């Protein structure tokens, strides 16, 4: 187990300390594009056009009665106006924070 952990730490360190400049720029562009399209664009749209309906989907457990039947996940679409913060926004922020700050919290 300890050997597997050390091997994982070496591969993570090798990925983080990659000498290719394009690798770092690719990671930055992906993060900025994701934040721009998923977070910033809907917020700017709702500021400049307040009546614009914005739709977003999220997974929700439906069905299931106590322990007799199992619930299943269904994709539920909701439409709202104004500044909306959905589950995708929080997941994206968690993923980007983990990508940039994950190694410093592990050490």
What does this structure look like?
This protein has helices spanning 2-16, 21-48, 87-106, and strands spanning 54-62, 72-80. It is an alpha+beta fold. It has one domain. Strands 1-2 form a two-stranded antiparallel ribbon. The radius of gyration is 20 Å and the shape is flat. The mean pLDDT is 78.
TL;DR?
This protein has helices at residues 2-16, 21-48, 87-106; strands at residues 54-62, 72-80. It has 3 helices and 2 strands; from the N terminus they run H-H-E-E-H.
Throw out a few tags for this protein.
59% helix; alpha+beta; two-stranded antiparallel ribbon; 3 helices; flat; 107 residues; 2 strands
Q: Helix and strand layout, with pairings?
A:
Layout: H1 2-16, H2 21-48, E1 54-62, E2 72-80, H3 87-106
Antiparallel strand pairs: 1-2
Helix pairs in contact: 2-3
């Amino acid at each position: 187990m300890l050997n597997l952990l050390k091997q994982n730490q070496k591969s993570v360190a090798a990925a983080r300390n990659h000498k290719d400049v394009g690798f770092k720029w690719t990671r930055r562009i992906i993060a900025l594009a994701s934040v721009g399209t998923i977070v910033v664009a809907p917020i700017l749209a709702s500021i400049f056009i307040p009546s614009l309906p914005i739709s977003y989907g999220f997974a929700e457990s439906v069905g299931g009665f106590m322990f007799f039947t199992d619930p299943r996940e269904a994709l539920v679409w909701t439409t709202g106006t104004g500044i909306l913060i959905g589950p995708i926004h929080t997941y994206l922020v968690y993923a980007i924070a983990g990508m940039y700050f994950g190694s410093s919290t592990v050490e």
